[in-house]
Structures are given as structure tokens and as C-alpha cells.
Design brief:
The protein has about 180 residues and is of the alpha/beta class. About 25% of the residues lie in helices and about 30% in strands. It has a single domain, classed as 3-Layer(aba) Sandwich (Dihydrofolate Reductase, subunit A), CATH 3.40.430.10.
Length: about 180
Amino acid sequence: MAKLVYSMITSLDGYAKTEEGGLGTGADDPEVHTFIGDVFRPFGTYLYGRRTYETMVWWETAHTEPDVPPHILQYARDWQAAEKVVYSTTLGSVSSARTRIERTFDPDAVRRLKAEADTDLTIDGPDLAAQAVVAGLVDEYHLFTTTTVVGGGTRFFPDGVRLDLDLVEQRTFGSGLIYARYRTR
């Protein structure tokens, strides 16, 4: 059975999304971006909410930008090769290959995806991921924590959920960003 991994860049005070955007510095560092690409290269399916998909769809054409650094080109290739499922009631169509729209998040359908998948899946976007967390579907949490306190927004972990996790891996980057991977007990 494949794992479902929830991963996002977060502020130091635990927010995955702010009202005005921007969670601080560190994620745009080539060393960090290369690491993120290496971590997620083996993943075969990305589950997105509409807003996250609209941000990530840039990777569909990133390889056409002039003077693309190798780490960006590699991430674009990996993203293009993966299956994408976008959960949205408002999105009319998708503009990337290997992508389909689901109108509602169905925990049982995600359980089937996990059971049938040959490679791990990732869920991105705090609103969508909250549904998977509450349903007990998330096997691992990958947090990329910046050095910025933003004071509000949407938290990485939904309110009202208690989780007991084991720290499996951690790394600190020169930019100050901290990576921590936790496994659900």
C-alpha cells in the first residue's frame, strides 16, 4: 500500500497559508529546491485543491522558460510525469497533462487510490489536506519551516486534531529553513 504524504512550506508559527501570501524566505534557495525535488521524485500522484493546483500548474511549461536552472528543469519533468487530481467545485478544466478534476473529496476513494498505487501520493494545500488529516489518511508529514513568523492564516495542522508522530528525519539548510519528516504512529 502506498503512503499519503502531506507536505508544505510553513511559517515558524505553523501557518501554511497567509492572507497576503508569502511564508518567508528559504524555499527559493536552489539547495532547498533540489532537496524538495529529490524527496518528491518517486511520488506518482499529487492531490491538490484548486488554489494549489493553480500555483503548481506553472510546472507544466517551466521547461520552456529561458535559462532554466537544472534543478528547476528536473522538478518540472518530475511534476509533468506524475498524475494530478484536483479537488474543486469551481474549476472548469485543467491545463496540464495527466490531470483530472474531482468535485468532492471522498476519503474512501483516496483509501482506494492508496491501496492500488505503486508509488506514494502527496496531498498539498492546507484546506484539502485538513480533510485527509481528519479522515486519518495521512501517513507522513513533511514540513519545510521558514524562519518567519507571520501571525495568522491557515494552519498546517487543522484545529481539533490530535496526532502522535515520530520524527523520522530532519535537516537544516544554510538559509535557515528546517525540514522535518514525521510518521504517524
